[in-house]
Amino acid sequence: MRPDGRMRPDGFAARFGSPPDVRAEARGRVNLIGEHTDYSGGFVLPAAIPLRCRVSLARRPGKRVRLFSDDRETDGVLEYALGEETAGRGWIDHVQGITRVLAERGDALGGFDVSVASEVPLGSGLASSAALEVSVLRALRDAFRLPLDDVALAKTARRAENEFVGAPVGIMDPMAASLAPEGAALFLDTRSLAHETVPIPEGAEIGVIDSGLPHEHARGGYRTRRAEVEEATRRLGVRELRDLSGEDPEAVARRLPEPLSRRVRHVLTENRRVLEALAALRASDLVRMGTLVREAHRSLADDFEVSTPEVELLVSLADRRQGVYGARLTGGGFGGSVLLLAARGAARAAADAVARDYRALSGRVATVLLPMASE
Ligand code: ADP
Ligand code: MG
Question: According to a count of CB atoms within 10 Å of the terminal CB, is the N or C end of the chain lower?
Answer without folding.
Answer: C
